[in-house]
Amino acid sequence: MSDLDDILEDADANEIDEDDEDKEYGFFERNRAASSSNNAVNGSYGRIATLIFGTDVQPDEIKRIMVLASALFAIEMSDGIFHSVQDPIFGAIVGLNFKPLAMAISFAATIVILCFYSKVVGCYSRRHDLFGFFANFFFGLFMLNALFLIHPSIGALGARAPDPLRILGWFTFGAIDQFDIIMINLFWSFTNSVVPLSSAKATYGVVFAIGQLGNLAGSLVFLFFGSVVGISACFVLGIMSILLMQSVINKYVESYGAAPAIESSSSCCASCCGCLEGLWLFLRHNYVKGISVITCLYLIQLSVVSKTAEYLAKDHFSQVYGCEQGQSCYNSYTGIHSLTYEAEKHVESLVYYVNLLTRLVTILFPLFGSRIIIDRYGVPKSLLLFPVICLFTSLILIIYPPNLYMVVLCLLLLEGASAAINTPTKEMLYIPTGIAIQYKARIWIESIGYDSTQFLGYAFTWKTSGGDTTFATTAGTLSTKGGLLCFVLALISFAVARCLCNEFEQKLTSSRPEDREESFINYQNVPLNQDDDERTDQYDVELPSLS
């Protein structure tokens, strides 16, 4: 029996050892499978990151840039919601026929807001604190505005007839415009001051694309939930996104530290000279004027091309769905007939799809194209590439017979090239400058310069009561004459870009630090709020002439 017991014990021991081996083998297999799964995920993420950012940007830098891009996403989402509700709110309270007047008043109010902005910038020593100030400012302003909107007698959206004497509608319209100007400018000013040029080349297109995604997300929020929760509730959602932006900036400062502090001065808030300092810097320095040309001049061409497409679409569908005598669109006195119902629907459908395609190209082109183009050609040559594209589209308008779909393709090409090439490169032009240019001069270009140039573009394509435009009597001749104007403007942009890129490349590659400092108005160590005499002495450094 003892021998039998020994045999059974040995068999049990062998089974236990085999079970242990199986468990151990299974444990290693599971670990190996988990490791393979993680490697697959990391490999997929790595391939996507390499496709978008390239191989020159470190993973830690990518994470830092993505945190900044998240802040822009939140800002643009708020802006998308606010601009989606802007017209419905103004139309319900005041009336959309007063919108041109509201735009003019908002433009005039921008100058006052810019003076206020410049004073606030001069009074804060830590740049990231500006986000906190303006986030709290707009949060309180819009929350008060929202309370008035839901008030049964003051707001009463849809319950009262529109009245131009109701101040709330005018105030809401202007406040939304000022939020767009200040917060987006503040983001790019901060980003240009903390991101090195080597990183900006690979990441600025991605940052801009993520911002456009945020704007699209805000528009979709209103599109899908506006009719369900109401206009006022969507307005509040936009306000909540401001808090999201502030939390992202706080996370960035907590994780990566604050930008170098600016020395404060007790006289900053008492002095009035800083209100127009950004305008003064713009007028004084040719380099900044050159950036304004690159930023704004193409908007005239964009307006001409978009209006040409709109007028060609109306002409095309008015011929397909002609207005016959006896219909409401027929005008026997002037001989100028309006569009039929079918033609209007087709024009609206075309405009919708063109806007959708425009959104897509302004997201996809910078997301996948900016880094490739800028890495291949560098910032200076990339800066020249966009005016060349503008010249190309102008020649198409001049040479080819007016064609609706050709003009639409030109419009999409301009929008995509602007997002992928012009926007990232013109932001990089601010990197070598100092905080005075980045925070105070840039906002004048992006607000007053931008709106003024857009107004000129609309003035060139304005249709009179007789059906004629400023340039031509038909959409076809508008295409040709507008193309000539666009060609001249593109030549001017190319000449200015050539001067800017030559100076940019020369000073960045110079081995003499004093050359870079003299040419790029390096105010990085100059307090924004220092005394007038000290500020004047520092600004005596002249930029190279663009001539």
Q: Helical proportion?
A: over 70%
The chain-level structural class is: mainly alpha
- Indicate the overall shape: globular
Q: What is the tally of helical segments?
A: 16
Helix-strand topology string: HHHHHHHHHHHHHHHH
Radius of gyration: 29 Å
Strand content: under 5%
Which fold name is given in CATH as the topology of the largest domain? Growth Hormone, Chain: A
Name of the CATH first level of the largest domain: Mainly Alpha
Taking the sheet with the most strands, its summary is: none
End-to-end separation in angstroms reads 112 Å
What is the domain total for the residues? 2
- Uncertain runs are 21-41, 262-272, 511-547
Give the total of beta strands. 0
The CATH architecture designation of the largest domain is Up-down Bundle
Overall average pLDDT: 78
GO cellular component, one term: membrane
Protein name: ADP,ATP carrier protein
Main location: membrane
Organism: Fistulifera solaris (Oleaginous diatom)
